[in-house]
Amino acid sequence: MTDTVTDRFLRYVVIDTQSDPKSSTQPSTEKQKNLARILVEELMAIGLTDAHLDEHGYVYATIPSNVDKPVPVICFCSHMDTAPDFTGANVKPQIVRNYAGGDIRLSGDPQQVIRVSDNPELGNQIANDIITTDGTTLLGADDKAGLAEIMTAAQFLVDNPDVRHGAIKLLFTPDEEIGRGVDKVDLKKLGAEFGYTVDGETAGHIEDETFSADGVEITIRGVAIHPGFAKGKMENAIKIAGAIIDRLPKDIAPETTAGRDGFVHPIGVTGSMEKATLGFIVRDFDEAGLAVKEAMLEDIVNGVMADFPGSSYTFEVKQQYRNMKAILDRHPEIVENAMEAIRRAGMVPVRGSIRGGTDGSRLSYMGLPCANIFAGGHAFHSPLEWISRQDMDKSVRTLVELAKIWEERA
Ligand SMILES: [Zn+2]
User: Fold this and answer.
1) Is 336 noted as a catalytic residue in this protein?
2) Average of per-residue pLDDT values in the chain
3) C-alpha 208 – ligand 1 centre gap (Å)
4) In the prediction, which pLDDT does 297 show?
5) CA dihedral defined by 69, 70, 71, 72, rounded to 10 degrees?
6) DSSP characters for 158-178?
7) Separation between Cα atoms, residue 333 and residue 407, nearest integer Å
8) How far is it, in rounded angstroms, from Cα 161 to Cα 79?
9) Residue 82 C-alpha to ligand 1 middle, in angstroms?
């Protein structure tokens, strides 16, 4: 078997693995196992004899150590599902060979154009081979690029026993896109000390920081009364909810923040005269900043409620995930080794943060400290998604170097 990373990628993206947030099954869609089974077969063919798919839809495998000394066991992880945002059925990948620059018009839908103005990274892809969709589906580079890269690195390590490395665990998860990617993972069985999700974007990037995230649910009890007899008595919960939303600061919103600034973001409202419920997500890189934003939100609620003496509210905060940096900072070698691997693979490492969460943020708190390495894809979750063959090759080289570096430094 001499599959290139591109061969693998093109094989995986045509398998529909869309996850479904409305499903209560595990995995959320049975079809994710179609890809999982192929991955297990391919891992066995490479020679990883413990490869298996478990009943929850996770794929586990081990690349055994080929040295005598103890080396920390690391894990490479990527997810098999694609986002519910856009269809992942009947993906027809297109390859623009030897890209000459300029916008890329997609053949299956003339409305869909990958524009240089929206994708400045295209400027670094001249002469590369760029894989796109035909414009009617997403591509699924998020995260089938990660799968193809890990599989190709695994094959390289097995085929080249002179390349020294410790034991490396492979983990492929379902349902990452709906926030359930690590719900049923068995970290004891996995047996890794440190991990890398291969789920980032631009080549050379590594992320060791995610948002910290809470959900807030505010329930308002108003005073309901027949509108014909309501004067001076009615307190309409719908109007109270509207007043709260109206007072949200405009500059602490997703649409007005970037970089390291967090936000408060209403995601749902339901209401009647007597009862209204407001759902929010709150995001910040600092846990303290999260608390400040939640206090501000409750101040707004209190300020509004002062005008409605007969009404009451509850304010419920639920933790969603936490910034993985707090954990990763205790193990600086995770990021340092990855930066060195990126350098040895011919890139300048760029360390960054994610305005969101990854499987890694939860894994880090579950006991597997886990940074996120680039997979090379761009414009995720959309028909304009694209990735280059050359960036996938760079990822494979990075993973191989990373395996070597952990052995060298052990
Ligand atoms: Zn992803």
Assistant:
1) no
2) 96
3) 15
4) 98
5) 180
6) HH-TTS----EEEEEES-GGG
7) 12
8) 27
9) 8
